[in-house]
Amino acid sequence: MSERLFRSVVPEDIDRLLEIEKICFSSDRLSRRSFQRWIKGDNSILQVLEVAGQVRGYGLVLLHKGTRLARLYSIALHPSVQGQGHASALMLALEAAAVEQDRLFMRLEVAKQNLTAVQLYQRLGYQVFGEFSDYYEDHSDALRMQKRIRYPEHVSEQSFVPWYRQNTAFTCGPASLMMVMAAIDPEVSLNQSEELDLWREATTIFMTSGHGGCHPLGLALAAERRGFYVEVQMSQTDALFLEGVRAAHKKEVLNLVHEQFLERSEARKIPIRYEAVTVAEIELRLSHGEFVMALISSYRLNGDKAPHWVVVTASDELCFYLHDPDTDKLTISELDCQYIPVAKEDFAKMINYGRNRFSAALFFKKR
User: Which residues does 27 contact at the CB level (< 8 Å), separation at least 6?
Assistant: First the structure.
């Protein structure tokens, strides 16, 4: 076999990579601009395969901010070197590079009819855990595959929580609540009509800008009205999110909404604990089989300094696993918003929002 070498890409490789793209793919090709962007990016791994001193392939892996997740975005080998073990070796090199970046999982999509590629990934330890219909430009379907590339000592089983994408920029709370309700009761329907109904019931009216987000007590009330048992934990007793609102009349409305939610929660005997949310508390709740919604600062995920609701689906020695209903801020597929591995040390920073380090979570039990 000819000598094989893996190395980081350099700008001089781009012309050769574009030739390989043209030969290997009839659609969904990476452009020159795309290659230039990934070469400069600090959230990716882009390696080329050299055989006998010639560039004969590449692999591109995306590293998602704030998580321990890597995603194989594209891989291609020139036909002249296919069938010689180079694809497996390239995948293992990409996995090793991702491990060096503290990633725990590698995920990918592959055309369902591409049996050669599917079998390659399966031999390397990847497992199918879903499908995308009409995923590629040619309308073919994709399999969703995943491999754990680094293990802690103890790994817990993930509880099944259906994933739902929020349909507006301000309904992460309702979308997360719907996921939890559907996990507890499979008869719950996940649809936009219910999403907007929940938002109307739980909204704070105003936020730092645009439409108001959802109050922990507003979400708890909406869940309780639908027959779900919920407990609330939050770190402050007064109105939320005031620090980002300048107008006096808006602050008055936020205070009034907070008081209304508080009175109604007390009237319906919803348990409320005023205490900072901690990693240990979430670990304990998950170990008891409860479902957890948490308010985080989305800055560490996508650079947007906004409060954002997610579902914590599972825990192991190193990570929490999140369902994030928002796909708009990241260059990712829906696959990458499900069971997102986030190191607990990173999550401990995410759950403190704003200058006053506000934290909130909702805990659900099956009745």
Answer: 136, 137, 138
Tell me: do 115 and 217 sit in the same domain.
no
Q: Using the 8-state DSSP alphabet, how is residue 159 labeled?
A: P
**In-domain check, residue 161:** no
Q: Which residues pair with 214 in a beta bridge?
A: 203
Same domain flag for 45 and 141: yes
**CB contact at 8 A, 56 and 80:** yes
- In this structure, the answer to whether residues 343 and 218 fall within a common structural domain is yes
Q: Say if residue 182 is in the same domain as residue 317.
A: yes
How far apart, in whole angstroms, are the C-alpha atoms of residue 232 and residue 220? Answer: 7
Among residues 70, 68, 67, the alpha carbon closest in space to that of 59 is found at 70
- CA 63 – CA 102 distance, rounded (Å): 10
| One domain, residues 208 and 135 | no
For the segment 11-64, what is each residue's pLDDT rounded down to a tens digit?
Answer: 999 999 999 999 998 888 899 999 998 888 788 999 999 998 899 999 999 998
Q: Give the residue-averaged pLDDT of 138-156.
A: 76
Choose among 311, 321, 328, 301: nearest CA to 363. 311
Are 339 and 313 spatial neighbours (Cβ–Cβ below 8 Å)? yes
Q: Among 132, 148, 164, which residue terminates a domain? A: 148
> What CATH number is attached to the domain comprising 227?
3.90.70.10
Distance CA 202, CA 184 (A): 20
CA distance 273 to 268: 15
